[in-house]
Amino acid sequence: MTRCTDLLDEPTVIIGSGPAALTCAETLRKEGYKSHIIMITKDDTLPYDRKKLSKKMTHDINEYIFRQETFFEKYGIKVWLNTTVTKIDVEKKTVYCNDGKPITYSNLVLAMGSTNKIFKLPGSNLEGIYYLRDYHDAEVLYSQIKRKHVTIVGSGFEGLEICSTIDDIASSVTLLARSSHPLKYLGAGLGKEINQVL
Hints:
Elements: E1 12-15, H1 19-30, E2 37-40, H2 69-74, E3 77-80, E4 85-89, E5 94-97, E6 102-104, E7 107-110, H3 135-144, E8 149-153, H4 157-166, E9 172-176, H5 188-197
Parallel strand pairs: 1-2, 1-7, 2-3, 8-9
Antiparallel strand pairs: 4-5, 5-6
């Protein structure tokens, strides 16, 4: 992989720090890109694998992280943590962040990822309702469910993985699904077999 050697050009700015953002930065270096790369994220940790949050309970963020800090230092990839983009001026090729400092870019990559579907129903803001999106969500969730009755809304891969992960620590687990079987997009046959296991 190429290291950053061109200090004159404006950087490539990547907004986001998920798998797509990290893959973009790594691919640029592998293809010989020598200018600065800056990843901007509102997270307070280096890029990590969110898919593992539903599979494993741990308080060690290093078990989720894709690359250690030394990797980013070696290849000249700056990661701005705790930073929110407030404005993008595409004509001036400038990004504005919550710290008030504008940054001019040569290339801009938007890789913010997806967001949770938030329920807007009566009672949906009550205590004891959790969403699993980031590492801090997982910490709160797993610390609150010991010996409690847990209901999971959603019967896709993530819902099933959470069921399996918390089965030993929750008093009971109930899975709510709109269809008659989980993983409906994989077909009724597999879904019915999973129903029998559950």
